[in-house]
Amino acid sequence: MMTGIWSALAMAVTELRRNLTRTLLTSLGILIGVAAVIVMVGVGRGATASIEGDLASMGSNLIFLVPGTDGGPRDHSVPVPFELADVYALQQQVPYLSAVAPLSTTSVTATLGGVDWKTTVDGTTNAYLLAMARELEEGRLFTEGELRSGAGVCMLGATVKEELFAGMDPIGSAIRLGKMSCTVVGVLEAKGANTMGMDQDNMVIAPLAAVQRRLLGNTSVSMILLSVDSEAHMNKVKRAVDEVMRQRRHVTGDATVDFSVHDTAEMATMVSGVTTILTAFLAAVAGISLLVGGIGIMNIMLVSVTERTREIGVRMAIGALERDVMTQFLIEAVVLSMFGGVMGILLGLGGTALISALVGVPFVVDPLIVGLAVSFSAGMGVAFGWFPARRAARMEPIEALRR
User: Fold this and answer.
1) Other CB atoms within 10 Å distance of the CB of residue 90
2) Cα–Cα dist 337/289, whole Å
3) Angle at Cα 244 formed by Cα 239 and Cα 248, nearest 5°?
């Protein structure tokens, strides 16, 4: 049995090499389909890993408390911002917290001499650095007096430092942030751009009171960041935060909840779900070319059967059985499909590496997808080669010889 299969395989390879150009063109559909599926899945997995890495870099035990709800497009209510008293209440009533940082953000133009640079100013406290896993490269933190009085001091992100000071030491220098003048007391370590291309270093940190009073003209807090001391306490802290905020905002039922509590793990799960669905959809679209390639294989195999009618008649006349002829043509279809599949895998891996490097996401190879691509290629050969093989096997030897 095995001898017959190896003999049929050798004959299939010889036959396909005899018409090499036709073999290459016929395999092209399978090649493109397999490559496209591998690229779509690989880049999708890489993007997911990159986004999860970005979220992890912000702190694995970070909770975001924001005003408003996730009511969807029909929710037109205006979110009521938090107050500084909410921050103090959370610090006093919620256990297992290592940092609580209020945050109010606005966009301004930073100016030094004749240089202007568009950036974002985050009004917050020193707890922001702990919550967001940011470190100082040089300089110092804000003093308690500066935070209470809303002094004109600030810390610069690496991008703002480079754009305004061009390599010079900024510590002690005065810059203007919109209507506010401030003295630089620190510079943050660079973090670079995230997966979405957002520069995480194009930012300035200033005392919350200074930003509220001099830039925003109000006392509201747009977000509260809470860093939990251990991942094991995340659910307890979220429940405690929910209870405290319901009391403070006089929430009487779920329908009147006007704030949202999210953590980085929840955001990572949500992002992973979205990217997985999108990747599966794109892979399914790319897989259509596999179907087209399979139809092309069936078409060429039917042509091959017609061209080799006399050969089939001779083989059957000297003793070949129907199963021998059918096996021969099935193996040819499988080899043809597998050739396209293997070449598609190589092209897909190369394309994934190239695109991943261009868009700045990790190069991720899923062995399961590669294995499925090989198996699917072989299956396409069997599925679309069966009809031509059956047609060849059912030929009458005398009629075949007459042709």
Assistant:
1) 23
2) 13
3) 150
Report the amino acid identity of residue 15: E
Residue located via tokens 């200033």: 206
Structure token pair of residue 298: 């069936």
Predicted TM-score (pTM) of the model is: 0.63
Nearest to 325 by CA among 382, 403, 400, 394: 394
CA neighbor of 238 nearest in space, from 62, 403, 106:
62
Pairing of strands 115-124, 97-112: antiparallel
Contact between 96 and 234 under an 8 Å Cβ cutoff? The reply is no
Instruction: Give the DSSP letter of residue 289.
Output: H
What pLDDT does 74 receive? 44
The DSSP bridge partners found for residue 105 are 122
* Pairwise CA distance, residues 43 & 34, whole Å: 14
What distances in angstroms separate CA 365 from CA 268, 343, 346, 349, 356, one per listed residue?
Answer: 20, 16, 12, 8, 11
Tell me, what amino acid is at 54?
Answer: D
As a whole number of angstroms, the distance between CA 31 and CA 41 comes to: 16
How far is it, in rounded angstroms, from Cα 13 to Cα 92? 77
Residue 167 burial (CB count, 10 A): 7
pLDDT digits (tens, 9 = 90+) for 145-184: 999 999 999 999 999 999 999 878 999 999 999 989 999 9
Structural domain boundaries of the chain?
Answer: 2-53+270-402, 81-257
Torsion of Cα atoms, 304 then 306 then 310 then 315, to 10°: 60
Amino acid at 393: A
CB of 82 within 8 A of CB of 102?
yes
**Neighbour-count burial of 322, counting CB atoms closer than 10 A to its CB (0-12 exposed, 13-18 middle, 19+ buried):** middle
Tens digits of per-residue pLDDT, 271-286?
Answer: 667 777 777 776 777 6
